[in-house]
Amino acid sequence: MNNPAIDEAKSKMDKSIEAFRHEIAKIRTGKATTALLDGIRVDYYGAPSPLSQVSNVSVLDAHTLSITPWEKSMVLVIDKAILTADLGLNPISDGTNIKVPIPPLTEERRKDLMKLVKKFGEDAKIAVRNVRREANDKLKKMEKEKELSEDLRHDAENEVQTITDNHIKNIDGIISHKEKEIMEV
Questions:
Q1: Selection from 27, 26, 6, 78 nearest residue 182 by Cα
Q2: 121-126 long-range CB contacts below 8 Å, 24 or more apart?
Q3: Which residue has the higher pLDDT, 28 or 59?
């Protein structure tokens, strides 16, 4: 069935999953990834700018990130921004480049990160369920305004539920994949 309420719900659920993926990409797994520094903003001539817009951020090896600022004067600013971001990272500067060693995770820290991933996952599931509720409310309103028959509304609600179930399964899959990444030593 081609219903704008269903299409809109699917689109919003997709966006919820994308936001969830983006959020957990920032959670470190003991391996170096440039996504760890995505949330860091540096003061660039009075404007808070993303780190990637004032420097080249790359992965040197599995446990080291390399940052090469476009301007030499930005080295100290970037160094300070990484320290104040409270990511548990200690940058090492040589005056022109910054290396960020990624320390191995302790067992306790891994468990804390797993709780955080599960919390983000639950938030994403709640967002998906809220979208389902909104879609069902729209369908009921359409039925009330005689734009939809009761049978078509029922079919559309079943379709929305199927889409919701698929998105919840997708979130669970993302959580289990991230769990494996975090628990891998």
A1: 27
A2: 121/20, 121/24, 121/171, 121/172, 121/174, 121/175, 123/20, 124/16, 124/17, 124/19, 124/20, 124/171, 125/168, 125/171
A3: 59
Q: Do 111 and 179 fall within a single domain? A: yes
Residue 127 has pLDDT above 90, yes or no: yes
SS3 at position 59: strand
**Co-location of 46 and 78 in the same domain:** yes
What pTM was computed for the model? 0.71
Which tops the pLDDT comparison, 56 or 87? Answer: 56
State pLDDT tens for residues 55-73.
888 888 878 888 888 888 8
Residues 87 and 124 in one domain: no
How many whole angstroms separate alpha carbon 70 and alpha carbon 54? 6
Does 48 lie in the same domain as 137? Answer: no
At 109, which amino acid appears? R
Shared-domain flag, residues 79 and 135: no
